[in-house]
Amino acid sequence: MCFFAKPACHIVLLIFILCCLNDALHAQKKAKLVLWDDKPAKNWMTEAYPIGNGRIGGMIFGGVDREHIQFNDNTLWTGDENDRGMYQAFGDLFINLENGGERFSNYSRKLDIKKAVHEVEYTQNGTKFNREYFCSFPDKVMVLKLSANKKRVYNAVISLTDSHEGLVSAKKSTIEIKGTLANGMAYQATALITIENGSMKAIDGKKIKVENADAITVVLTAATDYSNKREQNWKGEAPASKIANIINPVSKKKYAELLKAHVNDYQSLFNRMAINIGQTPLAQSSLPTQQRLVNYKTKGDPELEALIFQYGRYLLISSSRAGGLPANLQGLWNESNTPPWGSDYHSNINVQMNYWLAEPTNLSACHIPYLDYINSMRAVGKIQTQKKFPNTRGWTVKTENNIFGGMSFLWNTPGSAWYAQALWEHYSFTRDTAYLKNFAYPVMKEICEFWDDHLKRRPDGTLVSPLGWSPEHGPTEDGVSHDQQIVYDLFTNYIEAAEVLGIDSAYKNHIADLKAHLLRPKVGRWGQLQEWETDRDDPKDQHRHVSHLFGLHPGREISVVKTPELAKAARITLTARGDESTGWSMAWKMNFWARLLDGNHAYKILQHFITPVGIGGTSYTKGGGIYSNLLCAHPPFQIDGNLGYSAGVAEMLLQSQSGELHLLPALPDAWNSGNVQGLRGRGNFEIEDLQWQNGKIKVVIIKSLSGGDCTVRSPNKLSASAKSFKDLSSEKGFLYQFNTEKGKTYQLSAD
Question: What are the residue boundaries of the Glycosyl hydrolase family 95 N-terminal domain, all occurrences included (predicted)?
Answer without folding.
Answer: 35-83, 86-228
